[in-house]
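Hi support team,

I'm filing this because I wasn't sure whether my run with magnesium ion finished correctly. The job status page said complete, but I'd like someone to confirm that the output block is well-formed before I use it downstream. Pasting the exact inputs I used:
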Amino acid sequence: SDPVPVSKVAAISQYACQRRTTLNNKNKIFTDALEILAENCEFNENERSYVVFARATSVLKSLPYAISSMTMLEGLPNMEVQPRAIIEEILEDGKSSTVESLLCDERYKATKLFTSIFGVGLKTADRWYRLGFRTLEEVQAAKDLKFTKMQKAGLMYCEDISSFVNKAEAHAVGQIIEKFVHKCVPNATVTLTGGFRRGKEIGHDVDFLITCPEEGKEEGILHKVHSLPQGLLLYYDIIESTMEKNKIPSKQYDVMDKFQKCFMILKLNNTLVQNTEPERQIESKDWKAIRVDLVIVPIQQYAYALLGWSGSRHFERDLRRFSYHEKRMNLDNHVLYDKTKKVFLTAKTEEEIFAHLGLEYIEPWERNA
Ligand code: DCP
Ligand code: MG
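And here is everything the job wrote out:
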């Protein structure tokens, strides 16, 4: 007989920030399918449907048991008609025909391929698609296409970048970054964030936050990146800070933050990576291009930046939604603003931010929502 669903024991919250979601996903067969549909909604800029698929996916990821019948969905939040239909298809056939046909769809395939290139967003992907391009070879051979500096680098290293970064590589990159940062400011700290902080084995890039105990000292660091060892820096782009003091965060959920940052591509030598299989070293070149993001954060905003950059994207989205709708507070990667008391709430740690929001603390590895 089926185990008693947890939903019958204690209600599962509609908010990802009130659930513990580890990487031990018992419903991968459903969430893989639903994520493809959510992604396609993003490609079509269909925000409403994106949210419907993303929320259902996230609830399923948090369950400590596998769904094996439609009745097990009873009492679960965020299970709208569209995701339910997909789950039902999979329960009956082991796969979803909707997803199968989407995976063969020309536009979906091209958009997925093009947006996987560093520097290529939906606009560019759509333009290339409408020009009739379907493969990267066609794009690269095109006579009168203009590429940004970022796209040129993205295309040049697309094989390495699309092959994912593993933990050992992320660790090796971390050591390079730390060495560089400490040469600039000896007591600055470098923290690995993003998916790797959540315990993921692979990622599409490596994300680091950099801060200094004395405010202001962090400001010059990025402008010294060219002093990284010769040949290491394959590409970089520094985005200057657009910080405004005492700015009340907007209610938008997906806003980019205002920190100074550097998007780069590093040339990682295989000998710096522990446990690289010897075959891989012999078979081709002895280095790999890796996407790295560095974010410079003033110490007062560090806890908010850390929470914001640790993800997952859906966890972040629901944190902001929860703050806004349940607490009348606006949260972003810099501050938390209490609209009732009309005050900014300061925090030194992530724990303090959860406490401000009246939330139980959720560890980074439980934020894989
Ligand atoms: N982030 C966000 N909103 C965005 C972009 C990023 O909230 N529009 C946050 C959540 C992400 C984190 O920043 O987890 C890092 O962004 P990445 O795109 O690098 O995502 P991950 O590190 O989680 O995944 P990946 O393994 O693909 O790098
Ligand atoms: Mg990342």
